[in-house]
Amino acid sequence: MSRSRPVIALLGQPNAGKSTLFNGLTGSHQHVGNWPGKTVAQKQGDFIQNGVRYTVVDLPGAYSLLATSEEERITRDYIASQKADLVCILVDASQLERSFYMLADCIGLQTPVLLILNMMDVAGRQGKQIDIAMLKKRLSIPVLPFHASDKKQYNALHCAIEDAIHNPHVLPDKSLFLYYQQIKNEIYTKIFRLLPPGIHSAFSNAWLAAKAIEKDADCLHLLKKRMTLLQYQQLQSILNGVSNGILLTGECKFEWISDMLQGCVRRQKQNTPKTSGFDRIATSAHCGILLSLLVILAGLFFSMQLAKPFTFLGNTLHAFFSPLLQKLPLPQILITLLDGAALNALALTVSMTGFVFGITCTFGLIEEVGYMARIAYCFDRLMSRLHLQGKAVMPLLVSFGCTVGGAAGTRVLDTQKERTLTALLCWAVPCGATFAVVPTLAAAFFGNHAIWVLLAIFLTMFLHICITAKLFSKRLAPAYAHSGLVMELPPYHIPHWRSLFVTVFIRVRCVFLRALKVIFIASLVFMLLTYSKDGIIQNSLLYRIGSWIDPITRKFGMPFETFIAFLSSMMSKETVLGVLNALYSAPNTGLYTLLTTSVSKAQALAFLFAVTFNVPCIMAVSATYHEIRSLHWIIRFVLYYFLSALLLSFLTYHIGLFFL
After folding, report:
1. Sequence ranges of the domains in the chain
2. Using alpha carbons only, what angle is made at residue 419 by residues 415 and 424, rounded to the nearest 5 degrees?
3. What fold, for 7-166?
4. Average pLDDT of the residues of the chain
5. The domain over range 174-267 is classified in CATH as 1.10.287
6. pTM: predicted TM-score of the whole model, two decimal places
7. What is the DSSP letter of 64?
8. Distance, CA of 238 to CA of 246 (rounded, Å)
């Protein structure tokens, strides 16, 4: 054991159960940050075994060590740093042939490893029996059959980790590299012989030779620094005759996997799964999309039902404590602070947490049973036009209910860039709160013609999404958006309820604590700007600033009153009506009467478009930051949507002048 506090790195493909394992190992003793200099989330936690505290690092999900994405590069760089005392490689026991590819790519890694065969329960239900003893003997490393959702199995995992650190085993590279030597023209052998000894302490020369055939950019850069000029020129000469190097090494890996698993995996049943008929429908070109939409809509409805108790609790907290605060013998400014900032922030955060809870439960359940991959498969061709994969359709549709839920739903995507681009597009989708405000105002101004306004908003939404995807795809589009999506359809299985609820609890708690801080600060700022000693908003600082900027805001089709309401919509869409009510107030006169007499139809149209496509709300901003973990991109998001909303307001106002 190299350190008094051993470091365990978790490595595995997406959807192999790595997050469940991480939560099971660390529980509440975990935190999320960013990798140094990166926007990719870093999850780290700890646990204690026999008086020793172990640090667990959850590496980003990766299918190999090719480093073709930011996540894969972070994973490989961390392994190369040798900060970990043990790498736990997690594979799906129900699909060993496919999930062993990551293991094959780790052969040559000089850090001790422990192979964890997760989802043994699913493999058992498929009638598969895995000979663990034979597998251990062939791999020459410790192998642990496991079920990450079963808490009872973690004692065995703790013991396996402890033993693997005290009795380290490195994956032997001889068996796989015998297959590499069979590549035509002895390419691998020639490259291996060129390499000087001890190039990298974390990877063997045999591993580096395979990566050279794959023309791995980072590997070639390293070799260029460590080889003589003549050696590197000879290497380049060999590589010039290599095409599809990844395919060549990939074929060798799959041959090795097939031979390694020969006789280790036996099937007791050969019956056709009962779900095969359903899967033909679920993955068909037309029925599959229709079925996916129905599942997503049902999931959205279910999520909203789960969120209702939280919304009720948030409203009840405000309704119950607000009158009590008004009766306290405290200065009015302090009462306003407690009521308008602290209590309001708590109520909004509780309500927002309900959407996160509902979406996380629903998405988690859909992914747990194995249907998420079918949705991705069905929508992949359509979503590829937005430079995204099929799973991105779910967050976009969920955003019609709540942008917070849409941001939370981006967690189902595999890479940080995918999550960032999808979250950006979610902001263009009008949420449920927008649909509660905008149609009401549209009906007040346009009566029976309001339906055409709403139709125009929907058409603008689709155009907005397409333009936004086009503008940001160069920076955020994942590489496979141009080469197609290759993915595995996992088997259907019964959800692991305990694991799901633990994941949901950890997620909701983290979001709640972060959002409470953000919303409190935003509420405090808005409260101070609208505060006046006599309680009349016209005497507030915000109103005076509004009067000063009125000549400018009118160029965008908004008098300063509607412009202030537009600004308040970034706090929450529900505040729009309250702000309008405060700014347009007169004795014995209703709000809508005042609005229709004070604001022209062209100005109303501009205001409706501006509010709809403005920054969704402070809660959505907080939730999005929690997912993408990049202040740089959040600032870009806010500026982009604020300025694009002003542009839409300007265009609709001046177009409206011709027709209204």
Report:
1. 7-166, 174-267, 280-431+478-516, 519-659
2. 150
3. Rossmann fold (3.40.50)
4. 80
5. yes
6. 0.63
7. S
8. 15
